[in-house]
Q: What sequence folds into this?
């Protein structure tokens, strides 16, 4: 993986600011001068994110890593339209995101499955709300997604009858039910054991390539980010800012579990850790 400093990149992949007159990218996700300030009472405020700009390419797997409080989840929520930026804006294929957006499916740290609904009923909920397709089509999609995620046999079970890994599989399937272009994932595997996490990483990698989705992924786990990502954004804390981007070098586009045993994987994890430690030690 190649390290690209945000302030020093000659290719301008991660500019610290952009001209307001520059046209948004016609494809992919364009984050333009986005910042976030939270009010703390009448006279105090905290800067969660300093202004930052970057472009995430269509079909890319882009991860953000950083310690708690560095603004990576805030940035993800802004991109997904769940949080309003203080300045700047987010554009998908040239069109500005102004709120929750049907082009984006969201997967949270916890599965957020409704306990009084079956797994299948949870998958159908976004379609019930958005009316994005007929319920007949939604059920057909749900069956395909449940099969893809390996939990078809549990579609009539309640969420509390599923393991943590199975609940997250159901949450990913629910996010895909409306066929969004983009998956925004906020530490979706952080509560799982390492074995289950790695197995779901493998499945997510296969899903991303077969479904040709853009995935934006937040994690604390450097090895996970290296395994999954085309590029990794390293976030610096207090206030949150994008310090650098680490770009994948020499990895195949479709990766499998064998990569974790190879010397080049350990080398790239070490490089990513060096970029992280330089900021956070």
A:
């Amino acid at each position: 993986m190649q390290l690209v400093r945000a302030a020093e990149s000659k290719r301008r992949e991660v500019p610290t600011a952009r001209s307001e007159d520059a046209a948004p990218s016609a494809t992919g996700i364009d984050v333009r001068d986005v910042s976030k300030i939270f009010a703390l009472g009448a006279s105090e405020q905290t800067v969660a994110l300093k202004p930052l700009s970057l472009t995430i390419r269509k079909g890319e797997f882009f991860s953000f890593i950083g310690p708690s409080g560095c603004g990576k989840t805030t940035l993800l929520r802004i991109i997904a339209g769940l949080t309003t930026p203080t300045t700047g804006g987010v554009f998908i294929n040239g069109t500005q995101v102004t709120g929750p957006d049907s082009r984006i499916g969201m997967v949270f740290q916890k599965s957020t499955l409704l306990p009084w609904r079956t797994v299948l009923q949870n998958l159908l909920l976004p379609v019930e709300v958005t009316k994005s397709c007929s319920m007949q089509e939604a059920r057909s999609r749900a069956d395909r997604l449940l099969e893809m995620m390996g939990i078809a046999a549990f579609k009539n079970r309640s969420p509390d009858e599923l393991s943590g890994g199975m609940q997250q599989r159901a949450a990913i399937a629910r996010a895909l039910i409306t066929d969004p272009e983009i998956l925004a994932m906020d530490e979706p595997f952080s509560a799982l054991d390492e074995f289950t996490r790695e197995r779901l990483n493998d499945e997510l990698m296969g899903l991303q390539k077969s479904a040709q989705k853009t995935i934006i992924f937040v994690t604390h786990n450097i090895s996970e980010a290296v395994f999954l990502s085309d590029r990794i954004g390293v976030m610096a804390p207090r206030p949150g800012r994008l310090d650098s981007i680490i770009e994948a070098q020499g990895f195949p586009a479709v990766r499998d579990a064998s990569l974790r045993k190879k010397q080049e994987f350990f080398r790239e994890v070490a490089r990513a850790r060096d970029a992280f430690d330089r900021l956070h030690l």
Remarks:
- Residues 7-20 have pLDDT under 50 and may be disordered.
- Residues 25-102+180-189+198-280 form a domain with the Rossmann fold fold (CATH 3.40.50.300).
